[in-house]
């Protein structure tokens, strides 16, 4: 079984739900506590043993590439001022040279198309895919747990969670079959089905381990839900040839694609930080008593 060494991060989205902020800041660079959203997702990939990070970007996303580069002036200045703790944070997060790649999705044709844009950089090996809208909180990362399922069963592994059965039309939904390890066999997939057509309420929550055969399928996949080239449609075709397992993630997931999910993520990650937790709790309690809804 081939090892999963590379991860793809589709970061080309326009982030319209975060306007006006995303007029000049990519949504992946919005800050949860003190680091950008994309850092959490890259950290999860690193923890799972990923060695090479592939970003599928778009116009006006250059700042993501800059973020993962060394800021020599900043590092020198911190060293001169003796701010070694700040410098250590930067050094610990710095990807080694040659372990990041960037390519552009030239038109917003959907997630399936974004993944296909990474085909040359991934090559003929299995890869992880992490959707940066979703950030996850757990002692052991979601992708690291999925890797264990992959190592014992091979094939393709998708993270899943349960959603409100009335909200299946927001997500890719999978059918649930017999248990495999601490997951289950997937019996089919459909993108954004109406509740009456959904095979279950298990939705695709944004982490995937995929075999490279998906690329040739995506090349031929037509437009689906939302008139976009859907990854779920491509996976449903691959499903006819290969096994798919679902891994139900047992931690907390935050959909940072929406302001409410983003705020929830900020609170949850602040509460995780022993150095600021008590102050944050005090502030929330006081604000709840004194701030009234406006207008
Ligand atoms: C995408 C995927 C969908 C998945 C979702 C998770 O949808 O197409 O299958 O459930 O991400 O956030 P999007 O949110 O881009 O509409």
TrEMBL record:
Domain Nucleotidyl transferase: 11-266
Primary enzyme class: transferase
CDD domains per UniProt: UGPase_prokaryotic
SUPFAM superfamilies: Nucleotide-diphospho-sugar transferases
Keywords of this entry: Nucleotidyltransferase, Transferase
EC number: 2.7.7.9
Reactions this protein catalyses: alpha-D-glucose 1-phosphate + UTP + H(+) = UDP-alpha-D-glucose + diphosphate
InterPro entries with a match to the protein in the record: GalU_uridylyltTrfase_bac/arc, NTP_transferase_dom, Nucleotide-diphossugar_trans
One example of a Gene Ontology biological process annotation: UDP-alpha-D-glucose metabolic process
Transmembrane segments: none
GO function term, MF aspect, one: UTP:glucose-1-phosphate uridylyltransferase activity
NCBIfam families, sorted: galU (TIGR01099)
Annotated family: Belongs to the UDPGP type 2 family.
Protein name according to UniProt: UTP--glucose-1-phosphate uridylyltransferase
